[in-house]
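Q: What residues go here?
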């Protein structure tokens, strides 16, 4: 006799990744997927990092000004508690890089419990290196959407973003800051520009 779907164990979920540099439309793609899920009646939890203060804390806002409601949390432990509070079908995490590598086991746990988890964030630092935990998620996800921005010099695909006013030789201190989780990574066109491979000029 088949089991009642409402009482049968949930099968494993899936992990979807939206990655790219700044100005590539990552947040807009995340918002599009969340809106579609809500129209379909899916139970959705949208989480953002409270470090991102470019707009009101209770919303995800793209560089174009589009936004959706979100719950701001300050660390991976709080995120895990929020996600475990209810049996959500979809958990969407904005700016996942701010949560650091500690986010990885939480996301894997949610997927194993049957949720679809969408992680969205920067996969590259302003110095051109990998920005964990996004590369780890990209390696094991069921689906990865790697977006590019538009180089502000030549108009070609930009896979990097460059911080304005950081020329010259990279010191050990500046290299550590590239992956630090702090307000230095918050900003828009006043602080960063998109660059293609040819025109990207990281500190050397």
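A:
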């Amino acid at each position: 006799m088949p089991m009642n779907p409402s009482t049968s164990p949930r099968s494993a979920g899936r992990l979807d990744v939206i990655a790219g540099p700044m100005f590539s439309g990552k947040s807009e793609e995340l918002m599009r997927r969340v809106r579609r899920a809500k129209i379909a009646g899916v139970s959705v939890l949208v989480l953002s990092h409270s470090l991102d203060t470019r707009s009101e804390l209770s919303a995800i806002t793209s560089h174009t000004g589009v936004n959706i409601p979100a719950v701001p949390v300050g660390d991976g432990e709080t995120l895990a508690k929020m996600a475990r509070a209810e049996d959500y079908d979809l958990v969407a995490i904005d700016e996942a890089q701010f949560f650091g590598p500690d986010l990885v086991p939480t996301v894997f746990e949610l997927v194993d419990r049957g949720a679809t988890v969408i992680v969205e964030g920067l996969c590259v630092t302003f110095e051109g290196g990998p920005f964990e935990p996004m590369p780890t998620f990209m390696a094991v996800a069921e689906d990865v959407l790697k977006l590019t921005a538009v180089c502000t010099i030549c108009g070609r695909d930009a896979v990097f973003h460059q911080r304005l006013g950081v020329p010259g030789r990279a010191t050990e201190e500046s290299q550590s800051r590239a992956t630090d989780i702090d307000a230095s990574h918050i900003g828009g066109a006043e602080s960063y520009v998109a660059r293609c491979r040819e025109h990207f000029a990281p500190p050397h």
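A: Context that may help when evaluating the design: The first strand starts at residue 14 and ends at 20. Residues 14-148 form a domain with the Rossmann fold fold (CATH 3.40.50.300).
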